[in-house]
Amino acid sequence: MGFSARYRTAALSTVSGITYDLCIIGGGITGAGIALDAASRGFRVLLLEKRDFASGTSSRSTKLIHGGLRYLKQMEFLLVGQVGRERALLHRLAPHLVVPEKMMLPLIRGGQFGRLTTSIGLRLYDLLAGVPKADRRKMYGRTSALELEPLLDPARVLGCGLYAEYRTDDARLTIEVIKAAHRQGAICLNYCEVESFHYDGSHLNGVIFRDTVSGTRHSVSSRATVNATGPWVDQLRQQDHTLTGKHLFLTKGVHVVVPWKKLPLRQSIYFDVPDGRMIFAIPREQVTYIGTTDTPYEGDLSGIDIDTEDIRYLLQAVSHMFPRTELWESDILSAWAGLRPLIYEPGKSASELSRRDEIFISKNGLISIAGGKLTGYRKMAEKVVNLIIKRLTIPYRPSATSELSLCKGQFTSEHDVSLFRKHIAALLTDKGLPVEKSGYLVHRYGGEAESMINSLSHSAQPIDLLLAELQYALEQEMVLFLPDFFIRRTGMYYFDPVAAGEAIEAVAEKCAGYLNWQEAYRQTAIAEMRHMLENRWRYC
Ligand code: FAD
Fold it and tell me: What is the pTM of this model?
């Protein structure tokens, strides 16, 4: 049976009778990584996610696998080195999904970076991250900078640096890690909310959770329990009655998406904002996205508001750097807001707080992990599992995740990916489908793209291809609701909302058949999805 709703129902029917070595709460990248690490070391693992996998911060990041140039500025050399090397490793494990991307750092008259400091800084960044010689930073003068990026302001640009980063799709990376954990034997369930803990004396030995689809409650026993709930970490610590000492400080980060033709950048760019911060603008398929803000947040964790101040800040930043572009609020296609679960440090502002991860172990035994980055998920997982091995005196087996491919072994390099993309383009042509879809399919589904296309008849329509993606998502990626598919499995909600709107009926019909939806529910699901798409600034 695939990783589907049917598998989920079957797993739920037996989940209570088992004592797990490890119960992980939270199905973002942190929980997913821990599940994969632990299951591949022979642990019996259960992962519970209260909504969809990656529905928290792990689908709302800047979608970069990066060494964190800003951390170099904060003199966090160890962090830069660690995550920098991790980038290349993640690229090796999932070359279709962690893709090299040159990042431009423009040098601007009156900006915070001079040529010499930038040149030295980027060189140090490369050294710490172990970047191969051919890929190291290059510095350019004014003329070349303007050739590389004609949208820069000729009156102020002095030159630029170009350095190596990687881009990804955070929600897809998370689902791939979840699927890899499933292949290693972990039970990973979405829409299962942990409501309380149970204890043997003062020792935490399991959780009670509710399947939010059926409403049924289950009690499970576990030898160790990890709280990997990102922004919700302190809520769970509170439920364990052990929220003392260090605590979270949440900051909100907003991104906006505009049509590429409105901000037709030739490559990704990391640029100065007048208040001394830096933001990214990243072209992706038919759009460019811009972010992020970084402001303290104390509101509702599940419905994060994007206010006009956030939008104004990002649009002003763009017009400051690219004065010849005209971007208006009405150009915004979509937006998302994520919460950074940072560790509070007295006297420090949002932007100054460290992005390091930190582990708290409560007197009852609840292991909470907070902070960190998408990029560092594998090392964080290894650290948590090593700690559990020590506490449970389980025989030590080293982590194997540095060798566990996240694409079922199809690709070993970027070259393989680009050859495969050509092959997919040929298959698309053969079926009468737009060849431009090859990048979309390969970067999302890797080798699975081939069987999706092969399942189609000749002279297929684009909607047939989307339905083939849906079939795969239903059978292999535990899609239960429309937003799971439109937001996190395909990203269409953010990056191609018009096409998403046009496909709702067809997608809902197929979901209804596969998931046994009643007609009344199908209608409600369509109406809710439409409402979300029409208000896609608010539902973030
Ligand atoms: P989450 O993804 O939030 O996962 C926690 C999960 O726990 C949620 O899905 C939630 O539903 C679930 N949960 C909560 N309570 C319960 C419960 N009671 N029962 C069951 N489940 C529960 N990092 C990078 O490396 N590169 C970047 O480009 C980058 N950009 C960023 C930009 C922004 C704006 C932000 C905010 C962060 C960015 N980061 C980036 C950091 C990175 O996104 C986060 O570190 C990472 O996604 C956190 O993942 P997580 O699994 O810890 O938390």
Answer: 0.97
